[in-house]
Amino acid sequence: MNAARQLHLGAFMRPVSLHTGAWRYPGAYPDANFSFARLKSFALKLEAAKFDAFFMADHLAVLNMPIEALRRSHTVTSFEPFTLLSALAAVTERIGLVATASTTFDQPYHVARRFASLDHISAGRAGWNIVTTSNPDAARNFGLDEHVEHGERYARAREFFDVVTGLWDSFADDAFIRDAESGIFFDPERLHVLDHTGPELKVRGPLNIARPPQGWPVIVQAGQSEPGRQLAAETAEVVFCSPRDLSAGKALYADIKGRLAAVGRAPDSLKILPAAFVVIGDTVEEARARRLRLDSLVHYDSAIASLSIALGHDASGFDPDAPLPPIPETNDSKTGRAQVLKLAEEERLTVRQLAQRYGGYAGLAFVGTVDTVADEMAAWLEEKGSDGFNVVFPYLPQGLDDVAERLVPELQRRGLFRTDYAGQTLRDHLGLSRPKNRFFE
Amino acid sequence: MNAARQLHLGAFMRPVSLHTGAWRYPGAYPDANFSFARLKSFALKLEAAKFDAFFMADHLAVLNMPIEALRRSHTVTSFEPFTLLSALAAVTERIGLVATASTTFDQPYHVARRFASLDHISAGRAGWNIVTTSNPDAARNFGLDEHVEHGERYARAREFFDVVTGLWDSFADDAFIRDAESGIFFDPERLHVLDHTGPELKVRGPLNIARPPQGWPVIVQAGQSEPGRQLAAETAEVVFCSPRDLSAGKALYADIKGRLAAVGRAPDSLKILPAAFVVIGDTVEEARARRLRLDSLVHYDSAIASLSIALGHDASGFDPDAPLPPIPETNDSKTGRAQVLKLAEEERLTVRQLAQRYGGYAGLAFVGTVDTVADEMAAWLEEKGSDGFNVVFPYLPQGLDDVAERLVPELQRRGLFRTDYAGQTLRDHLGLSRPKNRFFE
Ligand SMILES: Cc1cc2nc3c(=O)[nH]c(=O)nc-3n(C[C@H](O)[C@H](O)[C@H](O)COP(=O)(O)O)c2cc1C
Ligand SMILES: Cc1cc2nc3c(=O)[nH]c(=O)nc-3n(C[C@H](O)[C@H](O)[C@H](O)COP(=O)(O)O)c2cc1C
């Protein structure tokens, strides 16, 4: 008999909260996104709560936003993922460590080597979030005047994946003999030279590091476009995504899982984890009040710009403290407009509050008590909206503590989340098998 | 009054011993070069001994050597420097962490960011060993068929240094206000966009990380050619080098320090640390016997090839267990031949022993008691052969323990080495000042 399906939980940790007002929330550490001591304490709490993974998003530039928003943004200084996750590997024991690396602006030899090294140092806890990097400012930090075109980015990403995994397979698992007596350190018969030549990449190999403990670090992907979904189906073992609600989540889940059979993969070999913003209160009203309080910390100038984009209509002339006035329908942004109107109606928000929602964090959110949030998470799992979540904390440490110390015990009580790690590696936590070496038995 | 000059000591840690037979020495850990637990214990011992720095050499390929040598080589699997040093940063407090990064096969935005991140995570203990990468096999792992030409490598290195240091200066030290009350995170007036366009590189900036605690991580350089020395004079704060003996050391020291005035630098702003292989015994005879024992672990096939190269003459037909036969002088390798003959005479070595010396480690070596080795180190310091050493351990843990627990106390007793760290950063340990930000007061 199969064990009941359980949630997988990742923590979205760069910046520590995606909400632009988080660093100003009462009790928050304004420097949390860039303090090793704080990040270490968060990682230890998440490990105590048995989270699957600690996830470092990454951007190869200062994020492009108007200066009025940028000067208020806690994203502007952050650690580089490998240095941070390696440091955390030395002070944690079980939690997975997922780093983002770009296939557009890095080299497969470097990427393969660093992830292999992180996997060895952490005893099998590394994961690679493959991104093609959508921020065009990144290109200008790497010698280009313009961004690489979307299709070409994905073509390179696919080939990059083949090269990196091929390099990871350079040595058979039993290649290293280390026989001090005979003086033989390794068996050259158990070493493969990749010699890859493709349209985008030319890489000889072998890698100068033993095969990772996990065989390959866990492959994560977060592209949402058609080529992004196809890359996920062909390569990913975890998909990070951002559906707006359960019905969108179910559609995306069915779409991505539906692509697996055609490439000869089992549905269970890929886990789908939407980003979910979680705000806990003793009552639903308290949770909502906390969220409004947090949203109120978003500066109005950047907030109203975000609302205008969502509406497809300039909102800067509206009375901030009145309800949303009637807005003519346009062809440009039908879904965006409809979503704003629905939200304004449901939560009875003023223009200012609506704007601050869009300027803060407007994605999927679970706002309520541990009970109502556990109900919602259970529904997503049950109705095949997801295999778990990549949790976005509203503010830290409080919002993280609320999840780790209050929500997780409730999920555990319901049998929806592990009460202890069953294995050592990130693959063990996620229920993923160890890939075979393509060159050796 | 100035304090008496003291030695600076680095530890050459990749591979843990450069000696090819080290992993076979009695008591050695055959997996030490690739075991985080071992490397952590070494770093802690070196820190307890107040070493300036732990140095990770690096190579972007499996080292090119004949397969008979390669299969006996403990270099074939190693950690990537940033992942290893970041992990060590989390478990050490004072020792400097010097990583090697290539200017030929990496991107300045990546390099600037990773060193800045390591410097922040370690609270000011990072150093960058700038290499242009001489191993031609590396080129083939990065899309090229042939190695980049030497002069072009150094031209790129010089420009690369300007870009990396310019990126480190992206933010003024006081740029981050983090005022939760007003919501201002940083002052855009204290942010500089580099906008570099040069013959080799085009990089916009700014870097997405605050200026490193040390201003810039310590700049290390190890090139020996004319452009290598000039790059050192213009940019380096530490030079790693490998003079064969004190007279060569003095010439190199005078040459490099002599170049500083022309570029407007004080002699003391650059420290010269030759690699030194240190073998300690209770008596000089015991130390020599240990070295012979270690050399005897080098396989004869690779040993004799190394000797032939040093002699400029095929030695494979010689009787291994007899003294070196007379060898006709050639024009090809006058110095090499003279050095071999001198060594054969001084230490009365057989062909086999000579070969194993060249196949093991043939560079500068101090072999003796703590007293004789301290005398030699003192002479180098006194006679301006060096400002200290980058110690190569013959075998580990024993050879490292002998230095950390026996030689260092003797150096301390003589006032030649610190008895405790006086400051927090690697710059403090080395007596180097913090560079000014070129864009901000
Ligand atoms: C949860 C989540 C996390 C993401 N993290 C990153 C990241 O760290 N770095 C990055 O460059 N892009 C990141 N992305 C963006 C995706 O990689 C991708 O560029 C984006 O979803 C657009 O899809 P497309 O590239 O297929 O058009 C993330 C996306 C999602 C949904
Ligand atoms: C002590 C020492 C350490 C070195 N470490 C490295 C290293 O880690 N990686 C590397 O590619 N080269 C290393 N080198 C080689 C130098 O960077 C340089 O390529 C070599 O000395 C030849 O000099 P040249 O490039 O100026 O001709 C080292 C050299 C010395 C003396």
From TrEMBL, chains A, B:
Entry keyword annotation includes Flavoprotein: yes
Binding-site list for FMN: 58, 100, 150, 154, 225
Gene3D superfamilies: Luciferase-like domain (3.20.20.30)
Molecular functions (GO terms): alkanesulfonate monooxygenase activity
Domain Luciferase-like, first and last residues per copy: 28-386
Enzyme's top EC category: oxidoreductase
E.C. no: 1.14.14.5
Keyword Flavoprotein: yes
Keywords: Flavoprotein, FMN, Monooxygenase, Oxidoreductase
Similarity comment: Belongs to the NtaA/SnaA/DszA monooxygenase family.
NCBIfam families: FMN_nitrolo
Name the record gives this protein: Alkanesulfonate monooxygenase
Organism in which the protein naturally occurs: Mycoplana azooxidifex
